[in-house]
């Protein structure tokens, strides 16, 4: 079965934030209008920097973000103290949440008392994820994800056993090929069966080989592009395909260089 996604190409890395945050504005506005809440999963890495201007995107469109209706979970997290430089939540708090008025009780990090035991962290986090999704009709409104030069997303790495996880919503690992080794991650059962919208965001030429292999065809629309995904998915990121949802890739011109003529 052919899986189609949308593609937005920013002219530069500096312009990725505006493109990404514009999509988030639209997703949040629709979710709050329909269900009175907006549930979103955020990843760390370079996406944190792109998200730092989120508030500006609402101002530019003249839209009230209604942050009091937002409920945030982590797409994945490293099992480290909040003050550790590897903590996704620590980075998000410093660069994103400090600038927007989401109630602290609606921003859900991991249990800091369990960071030495990834299994316990995952077991503690799964009911939180389920409770958050219940606030938006049992589905996550949006997952904002990155993708690495090896094609991983969240903490789902190539050839890892967690790619076959079919029941847990949150899983742990202690053998991440990228340090730190101990982490928790959302799994395909959540991303593919419990998520309405997914945004993949990335910039730079290191992303080009992943996009080259992940996309089968690219078609120009009026202001953006549509892509068909290659089967079987060559990377973990390319296997995120919500059964009843949408995937949007937001990348810069360097990442997509030489690919836009794939027809």
Q: How would you sum up this structure, described in words?
A:
This protein is an alpha/beta fold and 263 residues long. It is 27% helix and 21% strand. The protein is built from seven helices and eleven strands. It has helices at 16-35, 46-51, 54-61, 88-95, 118-134, 188-193, 208-214, and strands at residues 4-10, 38-42, 70-74, 76-78, 142-145, 170-173, 183-186, 197-202, 215-220, 225-229, 246-252. An eight-stranded mixed beta sheet has the order 3-2-5-8-11-1-10-9, with helices on both faces. The chain has a three-stranded antiparallel beta sheet with strand order 4-7-6. A hairpin with a 4-residue loop joins strand 9 and strand 10 (225-229). The mean pLDDT is 96.
Features:
alpha/beta, eight-stranded mixed beta sheet, 7 helices
Give the structure's gist in a few sentences.
This protein has helices at residues 16-35, 46-51, 54-61, 88-95, 118-134, 188-193, 208-214, and strands at residues 4-10, 38-42, 70-74, 76-78, 142-145, 170-173, 183-186, 197-202, 215-220, 225-229, 246-252. It is of the alpha/beta class. A hairpin with a 4-residue loop joins strand 9 (215-220) and strand 10 (225-229).
**How many strands, which pairing sense, and closed or not: the largest β-sheet?**
8 strands, mixed
| H and E string | EHEHHEEHHEEEHEHEEE
Note the gap between the termini.
Answer: 18 Å
Shape: globular
**Whole-number mean pLDDT:** 96
> How helical, in percent, are the residues?
25-40%
Radius of gyration: 17 Å
Low-confidence stretches: none
Class of secondary structure makeup = alpha/beta
Could you give the order of strands across the largest sheet?
3-2-5-8-11-1-10-9
Secondary structure tally: strands: 11
How many H/I helices?
7
Beta-strand share of residues: 15-25%
């Amino acid at each position: 079965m052919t899986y189609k996604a949308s593609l937005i190409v920013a002219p530069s890395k500096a312009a990725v934030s505006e493109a990404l945050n514009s999509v988030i504005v639209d997703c949040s506005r629709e979710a709050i209008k329909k269900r009175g809440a907006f549930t979103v999963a955020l990843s760390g890495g370079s996406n944190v920097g792109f998200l730092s201007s989120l508030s500006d995107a609402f101002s530019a469109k003249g839209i009230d973000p209604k942050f009091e209706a937002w409920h945030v979970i982590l797409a994945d997290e490293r099992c480290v103290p909040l003050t550790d430089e590897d903590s996704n939540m620590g980075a998000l708090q410093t660069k994103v949440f400090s600038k927007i008025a989401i109630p602290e009780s609606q921003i859900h990090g991991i249990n800091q008392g369990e960071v030495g035991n990834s299994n316990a962290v995952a077991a503690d986090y799964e009911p939180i994820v389920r409770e958050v999704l219940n606030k938006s009709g049992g589905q996550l409104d949006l997952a904002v994800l990155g993708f690495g030069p090896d094609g991983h997303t969240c903490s789902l790495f190539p050839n890892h056993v967690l790619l076959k996880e079919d029941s847990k919503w949150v899983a742990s690992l202690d053998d991440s090929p990228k340090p730190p080794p101990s982490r928790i991650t959302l799994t395909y059962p959540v991303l593919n069966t419990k998520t309405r919208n997914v945004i993949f965001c990335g910039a730079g030429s290191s992303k080009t080989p992943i996009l080259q292999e992940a996309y089968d065809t690219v078609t120009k629309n009026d202001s953006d592009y549509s892509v068909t995904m290659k089967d079987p998915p060559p990377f973990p990121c390319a296997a995120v395909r919500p059964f009843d949802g949408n995937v949007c890739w937001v990348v810069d011109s360097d990442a997509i260089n030489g690919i836009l003529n794939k027809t």
